[in-house]
Amino acid sequence: MKDKKLNFKLQPSSYQELWSLDTNVVFLNHGSYGACPKAVLAVQQNLRSQLEQDPVNFFGKKWEPLLDNARSKLAAFINTDAQDLVFVPNATTGVNSVLRSLTFSSDDEILTTNHEYNACRNALNFIANCTGARIVVAKIPFPLESPQQIIAAVLEKVSSKTRLALLDHITSQTGLIFPIHQLVKELQARGIETLIDGAHALGMIPLNMQEIGATYYSGNCHKWLSAPKGAAFLYVRRDKQPEIHPLTISHGANSLRTDKTRFQLEFDWTGTDDSTAYMCVPEAIAFMSSLLPGGWLELMQRNHQLVLQARQLLCTALQVQPPCPEQMIGSMAVVPMPVSLENRGYMWLHDELYDQFGIQVQVVPWQESPGMLIRISAQIYNTLEQYQFLAKALKSLLKTKDK
Length: 403
Description:
Low-confidence stretches: none
Structural class: alpha/beta
CATH architecture of the largest domain: 3-Layer(aba) Sandwich
Order of helices and strands: EEEHHHEHEHEHEHEHEEHHHHEHHEEEH
Number of helices: 15
Number of strands: 14
Shape: globular
CATH superfamily of the largest domain: Type I PLP-dependent aspartate aminotransferase-like (Major domain)
C-alpha cells in the first residue's frame, strides 16, 4: 500500500499470503475477531461439504467423533481433562451459561472490576436485576505500575457476602494480563468461586487450566488460536458440572446415555447447528504451531516482542508514557491518545485512520483519563513497518487537528 499523503510504502509480510486479509488494508486488529488462515478455512469447507452431502449421515455418524477429537486436542493444549470441557460459540456465551445456571439471592455479592468486558458486565447486570444480588466493582487504576495493584484492588472489595468473582484474564479495553493465578488462589482461600473471562488468552499466552485452578473458565478459539469464527470453550471444575447448563436446553437433558456426563451431553447438542468451527480447532493448533521452528512458544514470544516495539514506537511518536509494565502485555497493547485527539471522539479517529490511510486498528473509549486509547495487536503477519505507518498517520491527524 502507498498513501499519497504520507508517501510511505509498505512491504507485505511473507506470512500475510497465508490469510485472506485484504492486502489494501493495514490490519492491526487481530484481537477483536481474530483472522482464520486459509488452510484452516479449507478444512472447514471440506467438513461443510461432507455435512451437506448427507446431513443425516454426518450428524449421525461423523459429528460426535469429530467433536470429541477436537475437544481432546484442545484439552491437551491447555492441560486439562477433556471431560471438563465443552464447546460454545464464543466466550460471552460461556460466561452467560455459568451466570444463568447459578442461583443467587439478595444477600449475595458478585465481584468484578471496572475493566470487565461490556457484554459480560451486561450479563452481570441482568442477573442482578433478576435475583437482587449486588454487583461490587473493584476499581483497577489505569495507567498502573504493578500487577499487585490489581490484586490489592480486588481483595479490598471482598466481603463475607462475596459469592463469585468474574474477572478478565486479559482485558479487552486495556490489554492487561491480570495476575489470574494469584487472584484465583487468594479468592479461593477466602471461599470465593471464580469465573474467568479468557476471551483473549488462548493462543496469546500459554494457558494451563490445572495451574490456574479457576472454578469456571470461558475462552475463545477464534481469536489468537485462529480457528474459524464461532469456536470457543467452557471449562467447569468437575464438582460444579452438575449445576451448569447451556442457555438452550435440548435432548441432552434427559438422555439415557451413561458414557458421557450430563454436562457434556447437554452442551454438545443444543439443536441443529454448524459445528465445523469446533472441529477445526485441531487444525488451527497444528497450523499456527508450524509457522515457526519453536512452535507456539516462539510464535507467542515473537508477537509479544513485536507489540512491545510497536507500543514504544507509538509512545515516542505521540510523546506519551507507556501505561503499564511490559510483563503485563501479551500480543495486544494500548497507547493513550493525546488530548487534542480525544476531544474528537473514538469513532472519528477510527474512521479517519481507516478512510484516509487504510489502517484497521481498535480505538477504545476509556471512562477516565486518558479518555481514549488506541489498541494495537501483533500477529505473525504484522510487521514493524505497519506500526511506523500508523505512527505517521496519527501524527498527521494531530497536525490536521491543530490547524
